[in-house]
Every structure is written in structure tokens, then in C-alpha cells.
Design goal:
Layout (H helix, E strand, L loop, with lengths): L3 E2 L15 E5 H15 L3 E5 L15 H5 L4 E3 L4 H13 L3 E5 L10 H8 L2 H4 L9 E6 L14 H5 L5 E3 L4 H13 L4 E6 L7 E5 L11 E4 L4 E5 L4 H12 L5 E5 L2 E3 L3 H11 L2 E8 L5 H12 L8 E5 L9 H4 L3 H12 L2
Parallel strand pairs: 3-4, 3-5, 5-6, 6-8, 7-8, 11-12, 11-14, 14-15
Antiparallel strand pairs: 1-2, 2-9, 7-13, 10-12
Helix pairs in contact: 1-7, 3-4, 8-12, 9-10
């Protein structure tokens, strides 16, 4: 399947691991995480539209039904409300369901089940019940999918107490965060940046490990500017940082990895050091989750800031069919925003 490298495993914050290192794409790491969790815990089941024999529209579940059978990996009708509702019922009864919503854009028919039921069961039952479920969904743009296959809806769910929301940007985190999500006792929205499915490659331990939900990763250390983001924007954030380094600017890059809960301590520590913050994501600008991060920075570090908090995001329009590169906050847009902050 992939090359196996006999190297020492990478040490990353919030993770434990063992075994050989595999070189995987992000989607291969997602598949591996599900395969390992199906083997580890017979309460785990996977279901959604076309996830069985076909292996899903992006082939994330390819081969899993052959290995574990149609009682544990199975197709559903084309009804997102039913998929989410079944996941809630299974979770309350002691199972560990992983439900796939084929595209994040299709999640809205399931909104009531997720927000009104899954998110509130622990609270409304006084802790007697919980909903340990995972809803996986390919998210974001970059594949010329237009406005019904490219949305980034994470802010809707970040606004809902009782839900955890995560989005990995590396294969290592994709596996570790998904395994942590399956083992969580509360519902997790696990959004996968589909433009990184096969573009992001990296070393992933073959052995069991988790990445703690709620812990950011410092992708690059620096002292002049903090670039903070998550998901599909991270490769471009690193490109922007590398370009600025050639001009003598030291940039720290923070990958949130988790949106709810998010790592305030890591963000504040970085911005306290650099004095400048550039927040990046591909969701539309208005009511973007990074606005919450910006508010926290100015509330806690107002007197330490050397420039206003900057933000680069998607535009407040439906996602276009033909202009992915224009809509997405690429390295060029990040560089222009960074120069403005550095010259303030």
C-alpha cells in the first residue's frame, strides 16, 4: 500500500505512539484510523452513503466492508437526518458509531439531530446519557466543486455547546485525532479538508496513538509574526512563512487542529511573543470562527499587540465553480496581509 520507513516516530504534542513509520496521504491515514478502531473495539460501526462496497465517494472506507462485514460497515439511504439520528441512537445505546456525511455541504438536513439531540443529551439527562459518536465529512474547497461541494460549515457547530469540532491538516494528525474522536465520550464533528486528501503526505506511526483534542501544534517557530489557522490553509500558511523568512522575517505558524475546544494558551503564548497575529481560514469572513480567536487575543493581549489582529478568509459569497484560487486564502493573500501587519 505504502512505503514503510524504519525511523524513530515523531514526537508531537498530545500524542503517544509506537511501531514503524508509514508514509501515507491524509485520506490513507483516515482509513487506517478507522480500520484500527474497528479491530480494537467491536462497538465501532461505520455507515453513510456509499461507504460500503464502493468505499465512499473519496474511497476513505475502501476495503473496510470486505474486512469487517456488512453489519459493521454499511450503506444508508440518501438521508442525512436519518444518518445522524441513527448515530445518536446507537451512541446512546452504547455503540461507537462513525457516520459519514458525503460532503460537509450535505450536513444541513442533519443539523437538528446534531445540534438539538447529540449536543444536548448529556446536559438534558443530567449526565445519565452521552452520545459518543463521530460524524466525518469532507470539507472545504480546492476541488472545483462549486457551491454545493466546497463549503466550510464548522462555525455553525462551533457555536453549539456540547459538540467538539476538529479539522486535521497532516496525515499524522488525521489518524491521531480520529482515533481520539472515536474514544471520546461526547460527539465530535470531524471535518476533513478534501483538497489535502492526497496532496498532504507524511509519516504516520503504524502503532496505536491519539492526538489530544483541543491541543494546537506549532508547525514553525518564529518571533516577528504569528500565523494561526487550521485545515486546508496550513500548507499555504507555511509557504507564506517561508517566503517571509527569505526577507528576514521570523514567522511562527500555529495549527489549531481543534476548533472546539481550541488551544487558547498556545495562541496567546505565540502572540505574546511576536506581538502580531494573522488568522487564516477558508470559511466566509462574516461570523468566521477565527473572529472568536481575534476577540480573545485583543481581550487578553491588547497592550502587547504591535498591530491590529489581521484575518484572511474566504469571501462572503457562495463558493464559486471556476475561481477556487481566487476564493481561497492562498499564500499570496497571506503575504499581502502579513506585510501590512509588519509595516503597521
Amino acid at each position: 500500500m505504502t512505503a514503510i520507513q524504519e525511523k524513530q516516530q515523531p514526537q508531537q504534542q498530545g500524542a503517544t505512539a509506537g511501531g514503524r513509520l508509514l508514509t501515507l496521504t491524509l485520506i490513507q491515514a483516515v482509513t487506517l484510523a478507522m480500520r484500527e478502531e474497528l479491530r480494537r473495539d467491536d462497538r465501532v460501526v461505520i455507515f453513510g452513503e456509499d461507504v460500503g462496497a464502493r468505499g465512499g465517494v473519496f474511497l476513505a472506507t475502501e476495503g473496510l466492508q470486505d474486512e469487517f462485514g456488512a453489519r459493521r460497515v454499511f450503506d444508508t439511504p440518501l438521508s442525512e437526518a436519518s444518518i445522524a439520528g441513527a448515530a445518536v441512537g446507537m451512541a446512546v445505546r452504547g455503540m461507537r458509531p462513525i457516520a459519514e456525511i458525503q460532503f460537509a455541504d450535505y450536513i444541513f438536513p442533519a443539523f437538528d439531530q446534531i445540534v438539538s439531540q447529540a449536543a444536548k443529551i448529556r446536559y438534558r439527562s443530567g449526565g445519565q446519557f452521552s452520545a459518543p459518536l463521530v460524524i466525518r465529512s469532507p470539507s472545504g474547497g480546492g476541488v472545483r466543486g462549486g457551491h454545493h461541494h466546497s463549503q466550510s460549515p464548522e462555525a455553525y457547530f462551533a457555536h453549539t455547546p456540547g459538540l467538539q469540532v476538529v479539522m486535521p491538516s497532516t496525515p499524522y494528525d488525521a489518524k491521531g485525532l480520529l482515533k481520539a474522536a472515536v474514544r471520546s465520550d461526547d460527539p465530535v464533528l470531524y471535518f476533513e479538508p478534501k483538497r489535502l486528501y492526497r496532496a498532504a503526505k507524511g509519516e504516520v506511526p503504524e502503532g496505536d496513538y491519539t492526538v489530544e483534542i483541543g491541543k494546537a501544534a506549532v508547525r514553525r517557530e518564529g518571533s516577528d509574526l504569528s500565523i494561526i489557522g487550521y485545515g486546508g490553509v496550513m500548507p499555504d500558511a507555511l509557504k507564506a512563512a517561508e517566503a517571509l523568512e527569505k526577507e528576514g522575517v521570523s514567522v511562527e505558524v500555529i495549527d489549531l487542529r481543534s476548533i472546539v475546544p481550541w488551544d487558547k494558551e498556545a495562541v496567546l503564548a505565540s502572540v505574546a511573543k511576536t506581538g502580531r497575529a494573522l488568522l487564516v481560514s477558508e470559511a466566509p469572513r462574516t461570523a468566521n470562527f477565527m473572529g472568536e480567536v481575534a476577540y480573545c487575543i485583543q481581550e487578553e493581549l491588547f497592550d502587547s499587540l504591535l498591530a491590529p489582529v489581521g484575518q484572511v478568509a474566504g469571501f462572503d459569497t457562495p463558493y464559486p465553480y471556476a475561481f477556487d484560487k481566487t476564493y481561497l486564502p492562498g499564500a499570496g493573500r497571506m503575504l499581502r496581509a502579513a506585510v501590512k501587519l509588519l509595516g503597521y
